[in-house]
Amino acid sequence: MKKFRLVVCCVLAAALLAPGLAYSAAFSIFDQGAKAVAMGNAFVAQADDPTAVYYNPAGLTQLEGTQIAAGVAAIWPKAEFQASKKDAALGTYYGQVTKTNDDEFFIPNFYLTNKYNEKVAVGLGVYSNFGLSTDWPDNWPGQYCSGATYTRIKSYAINPVIAYQPWKFVSISAGFIANYMDAQMENNILMPGGVFGPDGHMKVEGDDWASGWNAGIMFYIQDEFRLGASYRSQLCHDLVGDITVTGNNLINMQSGGTLDINLPSVLQVGASWSKAPFTVEFDYQWTKWSNYNMLQLNVDSTGAVTEIDKNWDDAHAFRLGFAYNVVKNLDLRAGLAYEPEFVPNETLDLIVPNGDRWTWSCGFGGQYGKWVADFAYAYLYEDERSFDNEAGDVYNAATGVKVGRLVGEVQEVSAHILCLTVTRKF
Predict the structure, then answer these.
(1) pLDDT tens digits along 324-343
(2) For residues 308 and 414, what is the distance between their CA atoms, to the nearest angstrom?
(3) How many domains does the chain have?
(4) Domain range enclosing 47
(5) CATH number of the domain residue 414 falls in
(6) What membrane topology does the annotation report for this chain (predicted)?
């Protein structure tokens, strides 16, 4: 029985790590302020509202007095999988299409800023910059792949910052980030033929705090032209939690475990030109996903350590934003962003497969007295990807023998995003 349990644990570890935590990786959340979202998140050289705490804290020296902003981003993701190979063990047939269940998640954010004097400003941000909810049908052909029936990740960052303007033409800033991550993944465990009893169900949960930092700089070249840059450091999480298997007495178990994951550093640079009534900004964003080169899982009950190479490439995103001042205190905005795929075919997974990503956005903002309201809508679409690698391998949990591979195409990966930010000036 002990040997049997060890086989089961090794199979579970392999299943858990095969796709990794791509839901946080392929779905980084940059939607931290409605004004920025409406402009395709091309905002690092403007950063002229309290969301500058996230986008570029050097912009805080522009803000007068004390300002409080609160907002929410509502995201509705979806995806489809089309099987391209018949597999009796998985119940797939050529052309079979499975859609994710309808789901949504809401991401709040909060910012507080204060201009201490003519040269110094401080701020505090509370937001989520990694997260996802993916919900596939319980009995779909990919049900035995890790996290492929249900995955949800939540993260919250607490980010105090300080900005300093030594000369009229430049501002600099730095901040500390305390980041909390809570993850949950579920999938079924194959016990084929009924010989070993019914299929099992695996649930993995874990959480952790990690620390990092951010910094920014802004150059005021002239009244119309600005340059900005911001940097967010890598976050190293050691998720600690439980692995629970139920539904079959042979494999029922509960064990503690840890999962080590490195989230990437991010550099964003941009240029903004503004001449009434128009504003245009172009940004380039570099995300160091090569930090995400390996996952390591430690299973407490067996002492097993499993390492899986991910070997992701760095990501390069290009963002373009426009704003038009219609009348006093009313702006219309639009944006476009493009990010080529950065996950290799060998390590692509089902949780949120990464393809070439396009994002179209629009919105508006208005001010009434000391109140400001900004609204944005964005549509995100990723190109289809072929799926045929080890992340789709399915094993007999009783024997550890591979019984099949899920092969097909992930398509219609998209999301609708609505954002609202309300700011009060004091």
Answers:
(1) 999 989 999 999 999 998 88
(2) 28
(3) 1
(4) 2-425
(5) 2.40.160.60
(6) Multi-pass membrane protein
